[in-house]
Specification:
With 78 residues, this protein is mainly beta. It has one helix and six strands, in the order βαβββββ.
């Protein structure tokens, strides 16, 4: 599995590159084709970052990640 750091993830925010990625619990997901992530924003959440802490208050459970393509693993401290 490919590894990416926070800086590489941040570039996939819907503005700097075509890819739109988010991370959750150390896994990076591609949300580029999701209608819910147009322009890198989903309600009050922004792409290109680790959303683990933010999603504790989400109205959905983690099953939403099963539908997304895994890009790689988020490496902290790189």
């Amino acid at each position: 599995m490919m590894e990416f750091n926070k800086h590489q993830l941040a570039l996939r925010n819907g503005n700097d590159r075509e890819e739109i990625w988010i991370a959750y619990k150390g896994v990076i997901y591609d949300v580029t084709n999701s209608k819910l992530w147009r322009n890198g924003k989903h309600y009050e959440h922004w792409a290109g970052q680790d959303l683990t802490d933010e999603l504790q208050d989400a109205p959905h459970d983690t099953k939403v990640f099963e539908k997304l393509q895994v890009v790689g693993r988020l490496v902290i401290g790189s």
